Amino acid sequence: MTRPRPTPSPTTQPFWDATADERLLIQRCDACGHAQSYPRATCTACGGLNLSWEHASGTATLHTFTVARRSTHPAFDGDEPYVVAIVELAEGPRMTGNVVECDVNDVRVGMPLELIWDTEADDGIRLPLWRPA
Fold first, then answer.
1. Dihedral sign from CA coordinates of 46, 51, 57, 61
2. What is the mean pLDDT of residues 60-86?
Protein backbone atom coordinates (compact mmCIF):
# COMPACT_ATOMS: atom_id res chain seq x y z
CA MET A 1 0.00 0.00 0.00
CA THR A 2 1.16 3.53 -0.74
CA ARG A 3 -0.49 5.93 1.67
CA PRO A 4 -1.84 9.21 0.30
CA ARG A 5 0.93 11.81 0.23
CA PRO A 6 0.69 15.30 1.72
CA THR A 7 1.15 18.48 -0.26
CA PRO A 8 3.37 20.67 1.93
CA SER A 9 2.56 24.34 2.27
CA PRO A 10 4.93 27.09 3.44
CA THR A 11 3.57 26.58 6.97
CA THR A 12 3.96 22.78 6.98
CA GLN A 13 7.16 22.48 4.92
CA PRO A 14 9.55 22.40 7.94
CA PHE A 15 7.51 19.56 9.46
CA TRP A 16 7.64 17.49 6.28
CA ASP A 17 11.32 18.28 5.68
CA ALA A 18 12.12 16.89 9.15
CA THR A 19 10.27 13.66 8.41
CA ALA A 20 12.74 12.91 5.64
CA ASP A 21 15.32 12.56 8.44
CA GLU A 22 12.82 10.66 10.63
CA ARG A 23 12.45 13.57 13.03
CA LEU A 24 9.05 14.48 14.46
CA LEU A 25 8.53 18.20 15.04
CA ILE A 26 5.85 20.09 16.92
CA GLN A 27 5.32 23.82 17.21
CA ARG A 28 5.61 25.78 20.45
CA CYS A 29 4.32 29.31 20.88
CA ASP A 30 7.02 31.76 21.93
CA ALA A 31 4.44 33.94 23.70
CA CYS A 32 2.46 31.47 25.82
CA GLY A 33 4.41 28.17 25.57
CA HIS A 34 1.51 26.21 24.08
CA ALA A 35 2.58 23.14 22.07
CA GLN A 36 0.60 22.19 18.98
CA SER A 37 0.48 19.76 16.12
CA TYR A 38 -0.40 19.89 13.12
CA PRO A 39 1.58 22.94 11.96
CA ARG A 40 -0.33 26.21 11.77
CA ALA A 41 0.54 29.84 11.15
CA THR A 42 -0.79 30.98 14.55
CA CYS A 43 -0.96 29.61 18.08
CA THR A 44 -4.26 27.87 18.73
CA ALA A 45 -4.18 28.98 22.39
CA CYS A 46 -3.36 32.69 22.23
CA GLY A 47 -3.26 33.60 18.54
CA GLY A 48 0.45 34.39 18.73
CA LEU A 49 2.36 34.61 15.48
CA ASN A 50 5.80 33.56 16.73
CA LEU A 51 6.05 29.79 16.75
CA SER A 52 9.21 27.72 17.15
CA TRP A 53 9.86 24.16 16.04
CA GLU A 54 10.74 21.57 18.66
CA HIS A 55 11.67 17.90 18.43
CA ALA A 56 9.12 15.49 19.86
CA SER A 57 10.21 12.30 21.59
CA GLY A 58 8.05 9.94 19.54
CA THR A 59 6.32 8.49 22.59
CA ALA A 60 2.56 8.75 22.79
CA THR A 61 -0.61 7.40 24.33
CA LEU A 62 -3.62 6.32 22.32
CA HIS A 63 -6.29 8.95 22.96
CA THR A 64 -9.04 7.54 20.73
CA PHE A 65 -9.40 5.45 17.59
CA THR A 66 -11.70 3.84 15.11
CA VAL A 67 -11.29 0.67 13.12
CA ALA A 68 -11.90 1.26 9.42
CA ARG A 69 -13.53 -1.89 8.12
CA ARG A 70 -14.19 -0.28 4.75
CA SER A 71 -11.55 1.66 2.92
CA THR A 72 -11.57 5.41 3.52
CA HIS A 73 -9.37 6.06 0.49
CA PRO A 74 -8.63 4.02 -2.65
CA ALA A 75 -5.00 3.61 -1.53
CA PHE A 76 -6.26 1.55 1.44
CA ASP A 77 -8.41 -0.83 -0.61
CA GLY A 78 -7.63 -4.37 0.49
CA ASP A 79 -5.89 -3.34 3.72
CA GLU A 80 -9.01 -3.37 5.85
CA PRO A 81 -9.40 -3.45 8.74
CA TYR A 82 -6.98 -0.75 9.88
CA VAL A 83 -6.79 1.65 12.80
CA VAL A 84 -7.19 5.40 12.42
CA ALA A 85 -6.14 7.01 15.69
CA ILE A 86 -5.61 10.22 17.57
CA VAL A 87 -2.50 9.91 19.70
CA GLU A 88 -1.44 12.21 22.50
CA LEU A 89 2.26 12.95 22.31
CA ALA A 90 4.31 12.97 25.51
CA GLU A 91 4.82 16.70 24.86
CA GLY A 92 1.04 17.31 24.94
CA PRO A 93 -0.28 17.85 21.43
CA ARG A 94 -2.47 15.30 19.73
CA MET A 95 -2.03 14.09 16.18
CA THR A 96 -3.82 11.75 13.83
CA GLY A 97 -2.20 8.63 12.43
CA ASN A 98 -2.45 4.91 12.01
CA VAL A 99 -1.68 2.27 14.63
CA VAL A 100 0.22 -0.54 12.93
CA GLU A 101 1.95 -3.80 13.86
CA CYS A 102 -0.96 -4.67 16.13
CA ASP A 103 -4.13 -6.72 15.65
CA VAL A 104 -7.06 -4.29 15.50
CA ASN A 105 -8.78 -6.29 18.27
CA ASP A 106 -5.87 -5.57 20.65
CA VAL A 107 -5.98 -1.78 20.26
CA ARG A 108 -7.11 0.01 23.44
CA VAL A 109 -7.50 3.62 24.53
CA GLY A 110 -4.63 4.50 26.85
CA MET A 111 -2.14 2.07 25.35
CA PRO A 112 1.43 3.37 25.13
CA LEU A 113 2.70 3.88 21.59
CA GLU A 114 5.98 4.59 19.89
CA LEU A 115 6.69 6.34 16.63
CA ILE A 116 7.83 4.48 13.54
CA TRP A 117 8.10 5.81 10.00
CA ASP A 118 6.53 4.58 6.81
CA THR A 119 8.96 3.49 4.12
CA GLU A 120 6.47 3.13 1.27
CA ALA A 121 7.41 6.08 -0.93
CA ASP A 122 10.66 7.68 -2.03
CA ASP A 123 9.37 11.25 -2.36
CA GLY A 124 11.42 12.62 0.56
CA ILE A 125 8.47 12.57 2.96
CA ARG A 126 7.96 10.00 5.70
CA LEU A 127 4.60 9.61 7.39
CA PRO A 128 4.53 9.07 11.16
CA LEU A 129 2.93 5.79 12.21
CA TRP A 130 2.39 4.35 15.67
CA ARG A 131 2.89 0.89 17.13
CA PRO A 132 2.48 -0.51 20.64
CA ALA A 133 5.44 0.41 22.83
1. positive
2. 94
Q: For residues 72 and 89, what is the distance between their CA atoms, to the nearest angstrom?
A: 25
A 10 A CB-CB count for 126 gives: 20
Residue 24 is predicted with a pLDDT of 98
87, 94 Cβ separation under 8 angstroms: yes
Q: With contact defined as beta carbons under 8 Å apart, do 94 and 35 qualify?
A: no
- The per-residue pLDDT for range 17-27, each reduced to its tens digit, is 999 999 999 99
Q: Please determine, looking at this structure, whether the domain spanning 13-132 carries the CATH number 2.40.10.220.
A: no
Q: Are 18 and 27 in contact (CB under 8 A)?
A: no
pTM of the prediction?
A: 0.91
* H helix or E strand, kind and range, residue 103: none
CA distance 102 to 106: 7
The one-letter amino acid code at 67 reads V
Q: Regarding beta strands 59-68 and 82-89, do their DSSP bridges make them parallel or antiparallel, or are they unpaired?
A: antiparallel
